[in-house]
Amino acid sequence: MASSEEEQKKATIIDGKAIAHTIRSEIASEVQQLSTKHGKVPGLAVIIVGSRKDSQSYVNMKRKACAEVGIKSYDINLPEKVPEAELIQKVQELNAHPDIHVLAFVLLKISFAGILVQLPLPAHINEENVLNEISIEKDVDGFHPLNIGKLGMKGRDPLFQPCTPKGCLELLSRSGISVKSKRAVVVGRSNIVGLPVALLLLKADATVTVVHSRTTDSESIIREADIIIAAAGQANMIKGDWIKPGAAVIDVGTNAVDDPSRKSGYRLVGDVDFEQACKVAGWVTPVPGGVGPMTVAMLLKNTLDGAKRKIEQ
Amino acid sequence: MASSEEEQKKATIIDGKAIAHTIRSEIASEVQQLSTKHGKVPGLAVIIVGSRKDSQSYVNMKRKACAEVGIKSYDINLPEKVPEAELIQKVQELNAHPDIHVLAFVLLKISFAGILVQLPLPAHINEENVLNEISIEKDVDGFHPLNIGKLGMKGRDPLFQPCTPKGCLELLSRSGISVKSKRAVVVGRSNIVGLPVALLLLKADATVTVVHSRTTDSESIIREADIIIAAAGQANMIKGDWIKPGAAVIDVGTNAVDDPSRKSGYRLVGDVDFEQACKVAGWVTPVPGGVGPMTVAMLLKNTLDGAKRKIEQ
């Protein structure tokens, strides 16, 4: 991991889309094997509350990705005003009685259905209450506090790792970047990315620092990192001169910035100034096309793994 | 947090014994209030398997500490060869039916009994299996993965924080040392100290780095810390010149080293070279008499808090 300034060596762009495509092919082939050998396929139940356009679009993406690899997904649409208790009851039904979807489980030969509640939920519903209800055996998003605890603890393994953090580590390992004994800096400490990715890196023997909104000298700390995981949600926050030459930069940020040259009026950028990073880093993920496709691929992987565990029982 | 080398300023010694004594007095007075107001006191059930001398001695210490503040403790002694299933059954009984200790609960007016399984357990018993069985409402040690997950997650709070990590933060706050935006380095990543103390510091807005046995440059990383939590279990590992002048040093290590001048043939030292640290640090905890007494005080605090929660329900 070294470069000289004269060389102006270009970073290797980590092509998340291509890696995710490879992983999806691997999953498709495993699903095919399950189907041939056991006559069963994995399922994914997606609960959507209300009709937010962004949520609909994420759910559509997940539905398509499932279909592509042979995972049977089915949506449960609940109205915007659904009472929390009713949503929780729906989760409990999915936990306890897969046979309430007799048609799906018998006709489609589903062996296991992961449960995913699309976030965010409407303001009148307490997300924690709902997510805590998902059986940890079906929590393919891996957000349950019990899963997070096991993620961090030595000698314990969660049933599912959260999809985005898992995708970050997969990008590193499939790019041949070793984590062990490396200095890793995680920028951000959210429950869905920063915290769990820090725990995963620690378990993989990296020396991990978490910087966040209350950190006074993020820039100098980030500059010491061999591996940067940027998950702050701040457009172009990390400049080229914040990056140690040769470092691996995984950009989890997805920020919309105004762009009058586009029909939509905006474009998506990461937390890292990509052009600058390309001149300094050893590896860098683009936005879009880096971490994003991996999140969906890891959701499929978790769903497959849940089904395999169920069949092996 | 600055000092000049000429001054040879001595660090403030954080007197854990005195702070723990203050906390115990506070607890005793709260227990007295509970007893007066509700006619109930907190209880602590301690399960001991076998007859390890060190375990017996820890349990005695806890028993005495409970008695001193008015918490009713009772021991459940199980033979060394007790089958795992039988131990788990005992835990489940304590979870579900406080009234199996009718005598204790009625005569002694116990409102709540925390459950503590003294570690280590004999080799034929899987500790994880046993600890996972303790109801999280009674897990006064705070070691359940669900508690650890909530400890780390934003917006979630565990019912109980593990005693030693909680004791470390209490030592800092009662010494007037602010954690927010400080660089904290945790040395060690064990489930009972390193990991949870890192999560607590992160939640308290410190910028946290965890170094461990696979870290290649611990020394230079530790030197950047405003707050050092040493929990590596390596006698005198951290030298004076590893410490930034003025830093706060919390030494969790308790290591026996040979000392022919003592009748016992050994003495206890921390992970930090105490004499050297005194010349550089702003604050330093001694071993013994630093973190140790705080662990027991926090156990009493957790037990009290559990009882208060029960009464308020």
UniProtKB/TrEMBL annotation, chains A, B:
Keywords: Hydrolase, Multifunctional enzyme, NADP, One-carbon metabolism, Oxidoreductase, Photorespiration. It comes from Coptis chinensis. Pathway: One-carbon metabolism; tetrahydrofolate interconversion. Catalyzes the oxidation of 5,10-methylenetetrahydrofolate to 5,10-methenyltetrahydrofolate and then the hydrolysis of 5,10-methenyltetrahydrofolate to 10-formyltetrahydrofolate. InterPro entries: Aminoacid_DH-like_N_sf, NAD(P)-bd_dom_sf, THF_DH/CycHdrlase, THF_DH/CycHdrlase_cat_dom, THF_DH/CycHdrlase_CS, THF_DH/CycHdrlase_NAD-bd_dom. Residues 162-310 form the Tetrahydrofolate dehydrogenase/cyclohydrolase NAD(P)-binding domain. Residues 14-141 form the Tetrahydrofolate dehydrogenase/cyclohydrolase catalytic domain. This is Methenyltetrahydrofolate cyclohydrolase.
